[in-house]
Design goal:
The chain has 82 residues and is mostly helical. It is built from two helices and no strands. It is rod-shaped.
């Protein structure tokens, strides 16, 4: 019988299914972990930018560059959804 047309044994199908399932599980676990890590880091950034934004609201900058920086900080707080 030609090796290219020979049927694939059932054990090989099981092995391929197990390997595919393992790769799929690892990919999903990696995506979940990455989303969790990004969320945690985003929360840390929110804390920093919210603190800076609050400080600039209490004591507004006196220079044009300071006001532009404070405006950029405030816009970042809004963009991050803090």
């Amino acid at each position: 019988m030609n090796p290219l047309t020979r049927p694939i044994p059932l054990r090989l199908w099981y092995l391929l299914a197990i390997v595919f399932a393992g790769v799929l599980i690892l990919a999903v676990a990696g995506a979940i972990y990455t989303q969790h890590a990004v969320s945690r880091e985003g929360h840390k950034l929110c804390q920093v930018f919210t603190l800076l934004d609050g400080t600039y609201h209490q004591t507004p900058p006196s220079t044009a560059a300071g006001r532009a920086f404070a405006s950029a900080i405030h816009q970042t707080v809004l963009d991050l959804g803090c």
